Amino acid sequence: MRRHPSLVLTLLVSLVFVFVHVPEARAGGPIASGSTVAGNLTGPGYSETWTFSGTIGDHVVFTAMTPAGAVNTTITLKAPGGSIATSTSGHRLDFQLTGSGTWTIVVDDLTAGVPTSYEATLIDLSGTLTSGGDPDGGPIASNQILAGTTNGLSDLDAFTFTGAIGDRVALTLVPTSGASYAPIIYLYPPGGGSYVTATSGRLDYQLAASGTFVAVVQEQSLLHTGTYSV
Ligand SMILES: [Ca+2]
Q1: CA of 151 to the centre of ligand 1 (A)
Q2: From the CA of 23, how far away is ligand 1's center (Å)?
Q3: 47 alpha carbon to ligand 1 midpoint, in Å?
Q4: Which of 27, 32, 70, 147 is the most buried (most CB within 10 A)?
Q5: Closest Cα partner for 105 from 81, 79, 125?
Q6: pTM here?
Q7: Residues 73, 110 contacting (CB under 8 angstroms)
């Protein structure tokens, strides 16, 4: 029996769909906003470099996590031209860009000697918030309930809404599956200043500005995966 051409096409589409859901393994290189990459720290340098194009004033969040948090990493952000803008020995870097051009992120093994894989996610809060590998995020309307997934180590999902100064918003975040899974919201104002957050699963906040707000959902430790409603 001959296969129907549309069945073949469906199978091909399914294969592509499955493929893009695996974080792309690369030894550094470009990282797109809204996407997660899989990296490897190996000798002799135990260091990988990622690049992205950013505009002055953009607020970026970058996370990197090794399996089970076995190895402590440092994350260093370099401005176009190469000067160090900020760095952290934690797993989450949060920065408002001070220039336009190609920015560089270096992920290092702090102990410089333990080979490890890791996953890393970049979000430019005024840029692309989702990717083919992780469609969670985008606009959320008042009173709307959306389901999302913390797909892997380091995952960041960003939801946007427009508000006016003085509006009172309540954002709730409920884990719906996942062992030891504890999601948290970081709410960023228009223009990307300092965030507000709540660990209780409910963020009650009176808007101090008008415009587009971005609510970033992540797992508190970046170690656990699960599903949530927001
Ligand atoms: Ca996700």
Answers
A1: 5
A2: 12
A3: 26
A4: 32
A5: 79
A6: 0.86
A7: yes
Separation of CA 131 and ligand 1 centre (Å): 9
154 and 66 in a common domain: no
| pLDDT tens column, 40-65 | 999 888 999 999 999 999 999 999 99
Query: Which domain range does residue 146 map to?
Result: 137-229
CA of 157 to the centre of ligand 1 (A): 5
Q: How far apart are CA 214 and CA 203, in angstroms?
A: 13
Q: Is 70:41 a contact under the CB 8 Å cutoff? A: no
22: CA distance to ligand 1 center in Å? 12
Paired tokens of 165: 């100064």
Q: Are 206 and 168 in contact (CB under 8 A)?
A: yes
Distance 212 CA to ligand 1 centre (A): 21
CATH of the domain at 174: 2.60.120.380
Residue 114 confidence class, pLDDT cut points 50, 70, 90: confident
Choose the weakest-confidence range: 13-22, 74-83, 125-134, 147-156.
13-22
Q: How far is the CA of 214 from the centre of ligand 1 (A)?
A: 15
Give residue 139 CA to ligand 1 midpoint distance, Å. 14
In this structure, the answer to whether residues 90 and 163 fall within a common structural domain is no
What's the CA gap between 209 and 194, in Å, rounded? 12
- Looking at the 3D structure of the chain, how many domains does it have? 2
- Position 112 scores a pLDDT of 77
